[in-house]
From TrEMBL:
Pfam families: RlmL_1st, THUMP, UPF0020. Residues 47-158 form the THUMP domain. SUPFAM superfamilies: S-adenosyl-L-methionine-dependent methyltransferases (SSF53335). This is Putative N6-adenine-specific DNA methylase. It comes from Epilithonimonas arachidiradicis. Keywords: Methyltransferase, RNA-binding, Transferase. The lineage of its organism: Bacteria, Pseudomonadati, Bacteroidota, Flavobacteriia, Flavobacteriales.
């Protein structure tokens, strides 16, 4: 593998491609291109380490190592069997395969995964007289198999566990928001750590912690214990340590406030546990507070939140969203507010026209990320930008 000019693919959620592309450019990526749920770029081994350690909106970072066309299962197996797998996999290491198959010719992803596993094991059996183990739960090396019609692409996973697993979430409420989605929402909302931040329905605190990490410029994976690239044959421990030290030395002071409200005692306990795990007790304040009875007490203020649409709080949608709009209008003048909702009619119930609507997915739920601009003493109407 040419470690000076790696072709890097970074996976993300739908709607966050441009946010991720900007992150990659700021980190120093070359030839950065936004794709569908992904960004591609070029960089060296050190840059790959930096991406894994720092990127807030990356889910998984992979390196393509083999690409070919196959028109039948025999050709597919032969190509895989002839590949020099010991460039990437040591004889004693375990491996696993993730597969995505979009092909009429090869329709069964489990079967294609099994054939790839057989090819790898047979290669080692013939060349080294040893059979490497498959370990689906905790492999040393993970490969990604992608088949699009006849085109087969094999990639090496540099991340291991998905990068939304930051390491600070010890407790969670029902249907908590994904860390990558939370960070993407904050960046779409323009949060840069200047001013003050409020999540008025904070749940287990994910938006609060991600907001604090952005404000302090903490690397996204500062709490993570391991990455898949640490099991690679060419892993450079000294280089990775230097990259971590350089990033940590860039941590900034934060003079604003980051505050979360919630009415649910269990949610507040979960938030406090997670905030403590993230070592953010001095940065983030959470309190039991009904948003609908609150008044703006921070200036300037950015508000981002994920109103409950799960069993944690039983709500009457019409009344609930009307109360959100009334609270915006009556108690939060001169405030920028963003909320995400799977209720696609939510904006009508709020009684304010959103200045932006961004399509995002929270898990499999299609949502809209809605932006409201409240001005003191004005009924300004904004056109909707899709």
């Amino acid at each position: 593998m040419n470690t000076e000019n790696l072709q890097i693919q970074i996976k993300t959620f739908f709607g966050l491609e441009q946010v991720l592309a900007e992150e990659v450019k700021k980190l120093g990526g070359k030839k950065v291109e936004a794709r569908n749920r992904a960004v591609t770029c070029e960089g060296d081994l050190g840059f790959l380490y930096k991406l894994n350690y720092s990127c807030r909106t990356a889910l998984k970072i992979i390196i393509p190592i083999l690409e070919f066309k196959a028109f039948n299962e025999s050709k597919y197996y032969d190509k895989l069997f002839k590949f020099e797998w010991d460039q990437f996999l040591e004889k004693h290491q375990s491996f696993a395969i993730d597969a995505t198959v979009n092909s009429e010719r090869f329709s069964h992803s489990q079967f294609m995964t099994l054939k790839m596993k057989d090819a790898i094991v047979d290669y080692f059996q013939e060349k080294h007289n040893i059979r490497p183990n498959v370990n689906k739960d905790n492999p040393d090396i993970k490969f990604h198999l992608h088949i699009d019609r006849e085109l087969v692409t094999i990639s090496l996973d540099s991340s291991g566990d998905p990068l939304f697993k930051r390491g600070y979430r010890k407790e969670q409420t029902v249907a908590p928001i994904n860390e990558v989605l939370a960070s993407g929402m904050l960046q779409l909302a323009g949060w840069d750590g200047k001013g003050n931040f409020l999540d008025p329905m904070c749940g287990s605190g994910t938006l609060l912690i991600e907001a604090a990490m952005i404000a302090l410029d903490l690397p996204a994976q500062i709490f993570r214990k391991e990455f898949a690239f640490q099991n690679w044959k060419n892993y450079d421990e000294d280089l990775f340590q230097k990259i971590k030290e350089f990033r940590i030395n860039r941590v900034k002071e934060f003079t604003g406030k980051i505050v979360g409200y919630d009415m649910d005692a269990r949610a507040l306990n979960a938030a406090r546990t997670n905030i403590e795990a993230a070592e953010m007790e001095d940065i983030i304040e959470v309190r039991k507070q009904n948003f609908f009875e609150s008044e703006k007490d921070m200036f300037p203020l950015l508000m981002v939140f994920n109103p409950p649409y799960d069993e944690r709080i039983s709500i009457n949608d019409d009344d609930f969203y009307k109360k959100i709009g009334d609270t915006f209008k009556q108690h939060y003048p001169n405030t920028l507010a963003w909320l995400i909702s799977a209720d696609l009619d939510a904006s009508k119930k709020i009684g304010l026209r959103p200045s932006r609507k961004i399509k995002l997915f929270n898990g499999k739920l299609e949502t809209r990320f809605l932006h409201y601009e409240m001005y003191d003493g004005t009924k300004k109407v904004h056109k909707i930008k899709e």
